[in-house]
Amino acid sequence: MRGSHHHHHHGSRSKFYESASARKRTVTAEERERAINAAKTFEPTNPFFRVVLRPSYLYRGCIMYLPSGFAEKYLSGISGFIKVQLAEKQWPVRCLYKAGRAKFSQGWYEFTLENNLGEGDVCVFELLRTRDFVLKVTAFRVNEYV
Fold first, then answer.
1. How far are the Cα atoms of 29, 91, 113, 142 from residue 19, in angstroms, in the given order?
2. Which end of the chain is more exposed for a tag (fewer CB within 10 A), N or C?
């Protein structure tokens, strides 16, 4: 029996998830559906993509992959910080493009934290046509429809 207890203690991975689990919500399928449907009716004229936030996107040090179709078209060659905008504020987020995949790393966690984005929320990222690379976020939050 003691062996199994020891195994349970293995590694410090769980530390990673503390911050995410604080934002883990008991979201019903219905609430989830509502946020997704609300996001689907939103069709910006700018190039955009949608992401449903999963717990794995919400812990410190996490990486969020962007849809490859969007990445190939608009993000190729991007390496470094871009701006992610929500409401009137902008956050620097590191965006790396490699072999058809783009991902957010550094700065993404802070962005989700400061905007209290959590599991099941749907983010619509809209590419603003400015000199700087700015992705404007419209968040459809699951708990907004409760």
1. 23, 19, 9, 19
2. N
Which among 102, 100, 106, 123 has a CA at the least distance from the CA of 49? 123
User: In this structure, are residues 123 and 49 in contact, taking their beta carbons and an 8 Å threshold?
Assistant: no
pLDDT of residue 26: 74
Residue type, 128: L
Q: Which residues pair with 86 in a beta bridge?
A: 89, 137
Q: Fill in the DSSP letter of residue 4.
A: H
Q: Is the pLDDT of residue 83 over 60?
A: yes
Indicate the SS3 state at residue 110: helix
pLDDT of residue 92: 97
Report how far residue 75's alpha carbon sits from residue 97's, in angstroms, rounded to the nearest whole number. Answer: 7
The two most distant CA atoms of the chain are separated, in Å, by 62
- pTM for the complete prediction? 0.79
Give residue 31's pLDDT band: very low, low, confident or very high (50, 70, 90). Answer: confident
| Strand boundaries in the chain, DSSP class E | 48-52, 64-66, 79-86, 89-98, 101-104, 122-129, 133-140
Task: Please say whether the beta carbons of 145 and 31 come within 8 A.
Answer: yes
Cβ neighbours around 65 below 10 Å, total = 12
